[in-house]
Amino acid sequence: VRMRHILLITTGGTIACRDSGHGLAPALTAEDLLAAVPSVTRVCEVTTRPLFNLDSTDMTPKEWLAVAAAIRDAYDSFDGFVITHGTDTLAYAAATLSCLLQHSEKPIVLTGAQLPLGVPGSDAAENLKDAFAWALSEGARGVRIVFAGRVIRGLRARKRHTTDPDAFESVGCPDTALIHDGQIIRYGVSVGEGQGSVTDSPLMPPHEFFEDLDTRIALAHLTPGMSPYVLRHMVEGLHGLIVEGVGIGGIPDTLVPVLTRIAESGVYLILTSQVPYGESDFTVYRAGRRIHEACGGQVVTARDIPSEAAFAAAMWAMAVSRDREARGEDPLKLCLFANATELYCPITETLGIVDALAGLNATGADYIYLEERRIMLHHIIGSVSAGEDTAIFAGMKGTQWADMA
Ligand code: ASP
Hints:
The chain is 35% helix and 22% strand. The chain has 405 residues and is of the alpha/beta class. Aspartic acid binds at residues 13-14, 55-57, 86-88, 112, 114.
């Protein structure tokens, strides 16, 4: 059998750091990294593509567009992609790549380390090995972070600890899988294990790659007593503003007029919560509903996706909507899809659920909402109620991302 061929893209980060005399700085080459995991090159062929050697503090959407372009250009020649990246902006990177490289049939795996390769107690080699193990595993697809034995969806990741090796978590949705001693334990229904290929599913769209991001997006973390002027100045020249409200969905009364004016001026408002877990819903309290009443349909809610992902989705959605707008289509709708993009993934990756949907005649409009070849999961969850299928969905209902009815 042909050995699988993986493209290793390196961008820097702690994993590649050495003491520069002025603090840690990326210095190792892609070959240095690969030499530390000889077990990997015994089981697959690896081509290296060093793109950057940056502390990820200095990675920007421009660099992520270059990573996406490298994957796009090489997509047909490789079976999977492993990207090493600093951890500090890794969640942003993963979310951005998830938006740029949608529905990838091949695994696009990001990893890094909390301690440089070769330093006693470093997690670098283990994370790198795990990233390759996942990239080589049956049914792996889409953008994932593999870190400390966790496989996390690109639009769900958040860095949760500055020093602990278990630095990332999946927000609002379970880990895709765990990796222990090279063994992969998939969460829930496994993919591709005696169930045919996931790409057999009629619901599975082909990959769709995008080449543009709108970086005129900012994130505003609302604080008690915040001056409206801060927001007014902040939005100058922006196309979209992620507004992190308080609790499940609260916007201080003093900020509603300025946010309304901002929305009226054509800036899209994407509402989310500064609380790390749980869905945001700005219709529960009057203190949140005011923004909807004032702005009408000009706001969307990021629900339970992390702010990093809301930010990436906004960059993607705004870029695509410029196109759409030019063609006379509704850009706000697209922003809603930014919300739904990741929600699509769990369905397609979990064949059992796809089967269950087929059994439920889920192609009916009540169950799934298909547009732009994406499915809004909350419609499905809201409608499924009977028999064995409930069991499948009940398991998911316990998690935030399934609780979108
Ligand atoms: N400052 C580093 C970076 O993000 C931290 C790391 O990689 O763990 O590049």
